[in-house]
């Protein structure tokens, strides 16, 4: 097998494409022949030693992938050799083969493309967990989605619309805003045109008739967090997804008090460990929605697995709309 190996987590430049022995699955594991693997923001942080999960060295990055079960370890009965699966394992995806815990592999329905499957679990499960489970989003409510043209942002738009909510999508260019409209956003805000905090708040106020959004979905953090929270509706729910902008914002605690609002943490990976039945039920519901055509990953582009460093550079430029997927063969 071949894979991108991280022996020193100082950044993408240290990754090396190497020939490695093909491992054999141990108890509870499967060997997956990787067909596609998506690039997610944590995949950048993990090779910089900045992610909360720090795997032992050396490791192969690539948190989310899809492929075919090539071998099963002792005790694995729920999966079979030759079965197509998607997996969110945290590492291992950026190669031709990888070992994965069988319990984290989701069997794919017939006709589910590997590229879509590799771009599905992290973004859609995170967004469903945020909006449906944590924020208890209701039909008729308004959601403000920050970073709306990215992977989790585009998933959040589709899930909110599937629930029956109104969506205001905020993104950094007219092109990205147009993408958000094309997948269901009811209104858009271009950050670059409303960059000042007061300008952003005025735009949100105008689009919500001064009421504010009931739910804010924030995978960005940074300078937009506080003005977005100041704009939230009474009894609003502010979903903290991540900090793609870099800085982790500090929210004055008088703001939740004044708005009767909630700061809601969203951590899908931890949910899968603590509440595996909830996680399985979420994925089953999302697979049903996909089959019904209610949701579909937005794929920015596919690139050969050997071009991983170029893919990292493209993602680092913040030019990606939806998901970027690496493919083998």
Automatic annotation (TrEMBL):
Domain Enoyl reductase (ER): 11-326
Species the sequence originates in: Ramlibacter monticola
Superkingdom: Bacteria
Protein's name according to its UniProt entry: NADPH:quinone oxidoreductase family protein
GO MF entries: oxidoreductase activity; zinc ion binding
SMART domains, sorted: PKS_ER (SM00829)
């Amino acid at each position: 097998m071949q894979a991108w190996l991280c022996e020193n987590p100082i950044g993408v430049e240290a990754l090396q494409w190497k020939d490695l022995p093909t491992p054999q699955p141990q108890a509870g594991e499967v060997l997956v022949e990787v067909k596609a693997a998506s690039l997610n923001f944590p995949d950048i942080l993990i090779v910089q030693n900045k992610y909360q999960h720090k795997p032992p060295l050396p490791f192969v990055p690539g948190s989310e992938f899809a492929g075919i079960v090539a071998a099963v370890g002792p005790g694995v009965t729920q999966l079979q050799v030759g079965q197509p699966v998607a997996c969110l394992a945290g590492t291992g995806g950026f190669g031709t083969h990888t070992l994965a815990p069988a319990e984290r592999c989701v069997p794919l329905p017939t006709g589910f493309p590997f590229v879509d499957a590799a771009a599905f679990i992290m973004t859609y499960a995170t967004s469903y967990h945020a909006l449906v489970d944590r924020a208890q989003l209701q039909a008729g409510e308004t959601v403000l989605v920050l970073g709306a043209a990215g992977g989790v942002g585009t998933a959040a738009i589709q899930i909110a619309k599937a629930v029956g909510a109104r969506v205001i999508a905020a993104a950094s260019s007219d092109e990205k805003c147009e993408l958000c409209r094309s997948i269901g956003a009811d209104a858009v805000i271009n950050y670059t045109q409303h960059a000042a905090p007061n300008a952003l708040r005025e735009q949100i106020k105008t689009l919500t008739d001064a009421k504010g959004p009931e739910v804010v979905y924030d995978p960005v953090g940074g300078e937009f967090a506080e003005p977005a929270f100041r704009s939230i509706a009474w009894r609003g729910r502010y979903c903290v997804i991540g900090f793609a902008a870099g800085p982790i914002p500090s929210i004055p605690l008088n703001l939740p008090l004044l708005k009767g609002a909630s700061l809601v943490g969203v951590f899908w990976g931890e949910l899968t460990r603590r509440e595996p039945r909830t996680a399985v039920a979420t994925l089953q519901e999302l697979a049903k929605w996909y089959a019904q055509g209610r949701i579909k990953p937005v794929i920015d582009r596919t690139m050969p697995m050997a071009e991983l460093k170029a893919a990292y550079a493209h993602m680092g430029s913040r030019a990606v709309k939806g998901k970027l997927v690496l493919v083998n063969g």
